[in-house]
Amino acid sequence: MSRITCPALADKVTSAEDAAAHIRPGDNVGMSGFTGAGYPKAVPGALAERIGAAHERGEDFQIGLFTGASTSAELDGALAEVDGVSVRSPYNSDKAMRAAINGGEVDYVDTHLSHLAQQMWFGFYGRLDVAVIEVAAILPNGLLVPGSSVGNNKTWLDLADRVILEVNEWHPEAYEGFHDVYYGTRVPPHRNPIQLLEPGQRIGDPYLRVDPDKVVAVVRTNGPDRDNAFNPVDDDSKAMAEHIIDFLRAEVAAGRMPESLLPLQSGVGNVANAVLAGLADSEFEHLTSYTEVIQDNLLALLDSGSLDTVSATSFSLSKEAAERFNRDIESYKGRILLRSQEMSNHPEIVRRLGVIAINGMVESDIYGHVNSTHVLGSQVLNGIGGSGDFARNAYLNFFVSPSVAKGGKVSSIVPFASHIDHTEHDVHVIVTEQGIADLRGLAPVPRARRIIDNCAHPDYRARLHDYVDRAIARGEGRLHIPHLLEEALSWHVSLRDTGQM
Predict the structure, then answer these.
(1) Euclidean distance between CA atoms 217 and 15, whole angstroms
(2) Which of 126, 152, 156, 442 could potentially form a cystine with 447 if both were Cys, beta carbons 3.0 to 4.6 Å apart?
(3) How is 189-254 classified by DSSP, letter by letter?
(4) pLDDT in tens, 333-354
(5) What is the DSSP letter of 100?
(6) Nearest 5°: phi and psi at 148?
(7) Are 330 and 175 in contact (CB under 8 A)?
(8) What is the C-alpha to C-alpha distance for residues 25 and 91, in angstroms, rounded to an integer?
(9) Residue 10 to residue 167: CA distance in whole angstroms
(10) Radius of gyration of the chain, Cα coordinates, nearest whole angstrom
(11) What is the mean pLDDT of residues 75-87?
């Protein structure tokens, strides 16, 4: 019981099955977890068993499920497989939950990650009945030591009527001191400026707070976070990383940013991880990062000494990197801060710091509208996550993708995006392995020419130019954004019907 040293809460230690009994049909439940880190390991599975048994008896039992971001098959997958979720927000990467969402079985509310906490305070989703939060320890005074993610945990603990805590002894006790939980947020019209001026600055507390009277159960666990395995850096990812790093060199040479660059943000994925690997091999030093997640190569940048400090809300590590971090955790103190996601993704802070944002995309159309979330306009992949929080407010943003997929059958540069998450107004630079298109200061038609020439795969380049040429001719030069409406989505129709564009 060494991790649970508050007597009042130690008396509430129970099994996952007994804890899950506090969750009722129709409850809105806020669970911890962000990119497969810090999610509860035991209660979701016990809850899934309760729901499955209820359904076998012919009883209705579903919950509204709210997290920080993605969790794991132990949480999202287990609940989706028993049809246990009615509403899900804000982000999901589990294949079983994705199938349920696309099958119309779960109402999915795709929300910017910086928005969900405040929207819960505003009451947009109704009452939050239960919070299920994983922590590393409970201190004698009842304060909670967070683990590998913070996410929306502060808000869930504040708002929930009933709280279930999981104390996971897999997290090192040395996590104490790694967190910065800001308790100064307010709802309009009572808000104050967020006084955060550099990535490593503390503005909050190292602990989460909870009203002990709301805690109905405490569960002991000892299990690892999800293994966020990354593919080896392939030639396309390496090429995109090199394009971005060369671009940053040019920005420094032009006097638009310092030699140590500006704080970096990178979305989750292989390309972003490759960019970070490229930075480790570059001349850039004394880098900083203000981001959502700490991936393997961001940790490697810290190890190499190229990166001085990083602020995030969560880790997203491979099994090997997580084991290395847990083993050497003391060496990272003072260089890593984990914040609530409403702070890690806060538009005010992102704009003030002048963040450089690097995020993936599904496709971009020729005018720079970016689709980050959907296939064929209708089937959701993961959700917008934090890419909008950072892209719209960044000093400089990059959207990256290989130019083709499925062996060349699909182009990531299309006449018209089938779904738009980031409009042309918010997109600065498009990057594929073919090249880089700086769109800053360009009107639509010059943007189209640059994207096609620099980023489209050669197999699709002539067709894209032909589309623009015919659209301009159709409008006799009087169109701001030339389109052939009858053809705009024809590439996606072809993909749907024939399997290729």
Answers:
(1) 8
(2) 442
(3) TS-------STT---SBSSB---GGGEEEEEEE--PPP--------HHHHHHHHHHHHHHHHHHHT
(4) 999 999 999 999 999 999 999 9
(5) H
(6) -85, 0
(7) no
(8) 22
(9) 11
(10) 23
(11) 98
Evaluate if pTM is beyond 0.85: yes
3-class SS at 365? strand
The total of other beta-carbon atoms located within 10 Å of residue 331's CB is 11
The sheet with strand 130-135 has its strands ordered as: 107-108, 85-89, 63-66, 28-31, 130-135, 162-168, 215-221
Burial grade of 458 (CB within 10 A; 0-12, 13-18, 19 or more): exposed
Alpha-carbon distance of 405 to 403, in angstroms, equals: 7
User: If you count DSSP H runs as helices and E runs as strands, how many of each does the chain have, helices first?
Assistant: 17, 27
Distance CA 30, CA 406 (A): 37
Q: Three-state SS for 352?
A: helix
Please name the amino acid found at residue 297: N
- Cα 418 from Cα 490, distance rounded (Å): 10
Question: Is the pLDDT score of 1 beyond 60?
Answer: no
Structural element, H or E, at residue 81:
helix 78-81
Tokens of 315: 């880790």
Alpha-carbon distance values, 309 to 170, 202, 256 (Å): 25, 12, 22
pLDDT at 230 over 90: no
DSSP structural state of residue 373? S
Q: Indicate the pairing of strand 28-31 with strand 293-294.
A: unpaired
Q: Is 292 an active-site residue?
A: yes
- Of all residues in the chain, what percent are helix, strand and coil, respectively (each to 5)? 35, 20, 45
Distance CA 422, CA 263 (A): 21
Q: How far apart are CA 301 and CA 283, in angstroms?
A: 12
Which one from 292, 342, 363, 433 is the annotated catalytic residue? 292
d(CA 482, CA 474): 8
Q: What is the DSSP string of 28-41?
A: EEEE--BTTBS--S
